[in-house]
Amino acid sequence: MPTWNQINDKLDAETAAGVDAAKACDDLRTKFLGELSEKMTRPVIAYYSGFLQKKDAAGRIHPECAISDNDINGFMATIHSVDRTRGLELILHTPGGGIEATRGIVEYLYRMFDRNIRVTVPQIAMSAGTMISCAADTVTMAKHACLGPTDPQINGMPAMGVLSEIERAIYEIEKDPRRTLLWQRVFDKYPPTFIGDCERAVDGARTMITDWLKSGMLSSEPDPSQAAESAVVQLMDYDNTSGHSHHFGISKCKSIGLKVLPLEADQALQELVLSVHHSFMATFSRTTAIKVIGSSEGATWSVNG
Predict the structure, then answer these.
(1) Closest C-alpha among 154, 147, 160 to residue 95
(2) Angle at CA 161, nearest 5°, toward 156 and 166?
């Protein structure tokens, strides 16, 4: 496996020789994705967000880094040339994004690959990225990789946090009605229908993930419904996580009940996956790309800043 430094040295040499940086990065990613596909004996599509590198003027994650409805165009472009009869290995690196966009992506992948999907997480797949992972048969994770809570965000605010705040307000007002004025000021910041939107988002996410787990990853359990519901309770356990960015490592994911495989169990596979990962990280560092979807057949779709 080439190291991070070796990958950068190779790209430096190519750009110094006059090769366009974007083309050099594209060629390198395609090379590693092709080698990974040969190892896995099935097509590979990598969905990568540059959220660790790409920030807006205020230092926040660039909004285009999130999973959105536009991404379906990227999947359509990259799936077009692959053999869909052998299933799909999906490499994920994302901070998450829209719930309905996530639903659309998963349902499209289900139709294209007859639900035969495995996910690999080299580093981070948070929130909606975790939801997509729950739609797979298995998830392969590196020791340093993580999933995260599946708490939906509404207008940049955690829906479960809003609902938890309401429960706290009701409790405190019942104990001391004088706190009504204080809480009224808190709730004045919410626009009309916002609380209802939060309730629908939480209920929708819970139902969606439960259905995917029950019919897929956990379908072989003695009681798939119970196993799925138990997993979702832990994935949406707002009170016992430190925040939306709380990291669930491989041990935690296993304890939740997800079918997780350690990437390090296969040294050759680990090296190929990390080569893919490093090549995408180099792309975000060297080009204007904010998000890239690439296939082992050489198809590439990107969002650029």
Answers:
(1) 147
(2) 120
